[in-house]
Here is the input.
Amino acid sequence: MGRITLDKVEKRFGDVQVIPPLDLTIEEGEFVVFVGPSGCGKSTLLRLIAGLEDVSGGQIRIDGNDATMIPPAKRGLAMVFQSYALYPHMSVRKNIAFPLKMAGMDKAEQDRRIDNAAKILNLTDYIDRKPGQLSGGQRQRVAIGRAIVREPAAFLFDEPLSNLDAALRVGMRLEITELHSRLKTTMIYVTHDQVEAMTMADKIVVLRAGHIEQVGSPLELYRRPRNLFVAGFIGSPKMNLIAGAEAAKHNATTIGIRPEHMGVSKTEGMWKGRVGVSEHLGSDTFFYVHDTGLTDGITVRVPGEFDLKSGDTVYLTPDMTHLHKFDDKGLRIE
Amino acid sequence: MATKASRTAARIMMAPAVILLLGWMLVPLIMTLWFSFRNYLPLRGGDLGFAGFDNYARFFSSSAFWPAVGATMIIVIGTLIITVTLGVLLALLLDQPMWGQGIVRILVIAPFFVMPTVSALVWKNMFLDSVNGLFAHVARFFGAAPVEWMIQAPLSSIILIVSWQWLPFATLILLTAIQSLDSEQLEAAEIDGAPKVKRFWYIIVPHLGRSITVVILIQTIFLLSIFAEIYVTTAGAFGSKTLTYLIFQRVLESQNVGLGSAGGVFAIILANIVAIFLMRIVGKNLDS
Ligand SMILES: Nc1ncnc2c1ncn2[C@@H]1O[C@H](COP(=O)(O)OP(=O)(O)OP(=O)(O)O)[C@@H](O)[C@H]1O
Ligand SMILES: [Mg+2]
Here is the structure.
């Protein structure tokens, strides 16, 4: 259970084509993350799969069956919303019980599943409270609880952690990953957080303006971005992209080098520049280097501390084994 | 912000308004209380001295008292049921995206701006009249005998008119409440397997609970004292005499100020009981 296939799925709002025909297969048990800039259609794609929006063309198949015209409730999918969408007048228990009650499940089975979900998600202590009396993280867990009791074919998450603070986000990220390895259910997860995408996904789908730019495992995307967009989008800080004469030396229109793949020296190296801003994170130091004559600013990342001040001269040496080359259409050259 | 000095200043500045309002309320209240214990017949000898609880005893034991209480209840409850039910349905309807939404909404609110006397007269003469009314024409068109609304169904007629006046108020408040409902909640319920009707009962109605209590509270207070609608339609005949109307008759038609005042005091007490009762419910609903 839980294989989802999109076949030339298309979505238009009036005259505006938000998602041009798109093919994608999500395998059973996979954790798939949709990433892309704001407004690229991640939520829309998720809502199409959930059935909350009608497709303008194409077919959605769940486990091989055409689900395009099936109403959301019958698709066997569960969704967790960014705003949690808990029912404010119901207690935690009633919230979690709601889908079971709607399905007409008998009371004993309902209670068994609710207690089980409450245990997995540490909800037992506040099972009788109203959502208004819970913290953000607890609400998020209730929303997940409401999804898991249905034992759906797949979970759909739309930026579930974006309302939480940084520390809580790390915790919930781990919890969701653990949940996935325990339940082994297909999960589709929308985010624009790099770290979430890289750490949680089995497969990342990079979207731009409704197009799929690349599909692959996190490390595949990191090591071999298929085009300039993916190269610039995956990785933090961003890859340095250099066009012009320097790129021509490598028979490419644009070359890319990640901040962590450059050597830094005070005395010698390939490219000479002047240090602008430096950010000391303790574990790493980021330098923004100007006046290299290559591009506006180059970011480099040095592990640990490095003694350079603003205005100092610096020499950079890219690690040629990690150099990315792109042609005039922005596509990767092997 | 609230320092001692600013609080004192605030008190002093508010004092004139508070005193004025208090006087406005207290003077008539005390005069009513005073008259209710007097034997005061303006056209039959004037103030004839202290009457003890005679006025109260006579008001409660009069044969018109319980029917008046009953009529008041029927009108208030009937109007509440109609306005709240139709208000919820109309609000749901108006919340749907449609062509000319702005104009439709203004039209829906319009009855609220018509004066009670005017709307009651319009209803009485143009719709309910048994000879020339629209309903009579419709009835005759289908070959039925026109209903003598004012005689055969006076309470229903009044409820109809009053509901027409108050429906916009209920609709407006409920519409804003529906618009404040998070659409993701409805979508979540849809995915959770709740069909439209169940989404209405489990999500929309509880969300509206608070607004419905506010509508009931405010309307009850105003409906307890409707007068013009009765005065211009049945003039209290055919069992349509409410408490307010009974008091009016005692004071102005029977020229017995003492008796009417006793009724007035009773009405004040009744209204307060209802208000406290409703405030409790509202308070409880607003808490959660
Ligand atoms: N109901 C709608 N009517 C018209 N246009 C819409 C509608 N919903 C979304 N859009 C448009 O579709 C595009 C994609 O929206 P979507 O919400 O899927 O973006 P997103 O990738 O989820 O962005 P974000 O990261 O900001 O949530 C946007 O340009 C948006 O304006
Ligand atoms: Mg979105």
Summary: Chain B touches chain A through 19 residues (CB under 8 Å).
